[in-house]
UniProtKB/TrEMBL annotation, chain B:
The chain crosses the membrane at residues 32-50, 71-88, 116-135. Residues 17-257 form the Transketolase N-terminal domain. It comes from Bradyrhizobium daqingense. Keywords: Membrane, Thiamine pyrophosphate, Transmembrane, Transmembrane helix. InterPro entries: THDP-binding, Transketolase_N. This is Transketolase subunit A. Its cofactor is thiamine diphosphate. SUPFAM superfamilies: Thiamin diphosphate-binding fold (THDP-binding).
Amino acid sequence: MAARPVGPGRGRPAVKSEGSPPTGKDKLTTSAMIASIAAEGQRTRPAPFGHALVELARSREDVVGMTADLGKYTDLHIFAQAFPDRYYQMGMAEQLLFGAASGLAAEGFMPFATTYAVFASRRAYDFIHQTIAEEDRNVKIACALPGLTSGYGPSHQAAEDLALFRAMPNMTVIDPCDAHEIEQIVPAIAAHRGPVYMRLLRGQVPLVLDEYNYRFELGKAALLRDGTDVLIISSGIMTMRALEAAQALSNDRVNAAILHVPTIKPLDTEAILREAARPGRLVVVAENHTVIGGLGEAVAALLMRAGVHPAFRQIGLPDAFLTAGALPTLHDRYGISTAEVTRQIKQWLR
Amino acid sequence: MATLANAPTLAQRARNIRRNALRMGEVQGQGYIAQALDIADVLAVAYFHAMRFRAEDPAWEGRDRFLLSNGHYAIALYAVLIEAGIIPEAELETYGFDDSRLPMSGMASYTPGMEMSGGSLGLGLAIAVGMALGLKRKTSTARIFTLFSDGELDEGSKWEAIMSAAHHELDNIIAIVDVNNQQADGPSKQMLGFEPLVDKLEAFGWFVQRVDGNDLDAVVGAFDAAMAHAAPKPRMIVADTLMGKGVPFLEQREKNHFIRIEPHEWQLALSALDAGDQP
């Protein structure tokens, strides 16, 4: 494991340092913002959000694109190239970005506003709350680097975005898994009238769900795989991890079902209760988000309210400021890599 | 625009706005009364000299938009909306009560004629930028009027929007900043210095005028010049106003950001207003 200097910062998990200090040789690089979440050799598709938005904008003249100095890093540059006169560069000013998005929506346009998830959720929360959600404006917020998809450290790791936007009335919240899903989400949220927060995977985005005959439907969960021993309820990239983990678990004759829940709010309570109530299965919720206030706690509360009490576990990021580093290292360290998902489930089933 | 010979004068409009605000204040016994009194002249000129609107159709597409960024001035805007006939006068009695369309802080979802929900400060000019961009997209000649307070200049978002409006050459924005030098904790200039305001705004690329916000002729002149200005710049009117204007015993109150008035004082305030209005 790569060691890091352990600072005095409170709340940080101690990182085990094995042997001598790191030399930098033979270590994974941080990769920082440009890190791809695609594994080597994995099928990918470039900029699915940007291309889907261009496709949408061909038939909908009310679509405009807006960003706060992150067009190239949210795949919005694809839209900017196709529709330069419908693209608004607002500068590095997220409060302005979302206030102005509200103004454009008030005049009948449908802004797709992009930035990083940390800046929308943390810096501009009040502006989204007051000018967009409270006024129920038709603004679609698409944010890159959700959860732990950057090795750049807490400044760029949006571990709390789902909790924050789940708590905001009127807001629809979506956590997509792959390129296939993002392509379908764009027209689906355009057809829905009201504010939407969607997590964005950008660049070379993994392609997974096309093999599962999957179609995104707003507010609906999808059973991607059935199984008798464990039910994994997951969103976002964790569905990808869960599918890989299920394969690994089957080698140990563990039979895993996977319920993919891309819409975090409103939750598909019917599908979740139906699947979780089936007897004899451990229920594991897996999310690329702090275990506080995201999908895991949403599902737990739903089950408690409905009187459904399966054995229940959560896979997610710890309540801590995460370290900087290479994504594969960090995903292992914080338990959301395929190997760690597999290991944890096996341990719980023992 | 008041063009009929028997239409009320702007001075009468301003007086009526102050009266409406005082009557609503009496309903609750407290409120942002001093601000309503200080900004009444500016609002009279905005609504009854400068802006295009249809009282019977507040959402008319061709209307000029008025964005009240300082939501706590809602009582002042309700007073204008009543004077303009957009809100029935009888609703004045419901101010601040449960289920009223006139909550104490201005919200678009409650009140006809309200274009944004305020309360949290520093929002209005950012929305104005988006609306102005949207109006230009639609090739609409409608304009955005937006009012904010000197205290809001503390908010960084204000300066983001000030830069943006100039960058996008949003000549369809006419912003008014109410410089009454009073914030929640004391005089604005002691909270976070914002002068020299005109120099700053001009350096940011705006067409700026500074006027006595309680001098009706000066305010009319400023709105006319703002609307007639030829350069592709957003326009700002810096209006110096007096808290409590028109009611001498309120003008002299030291703590007048949020004031309480004893029950018997409301009638005194209304009388003082009328007395001051005599030639």
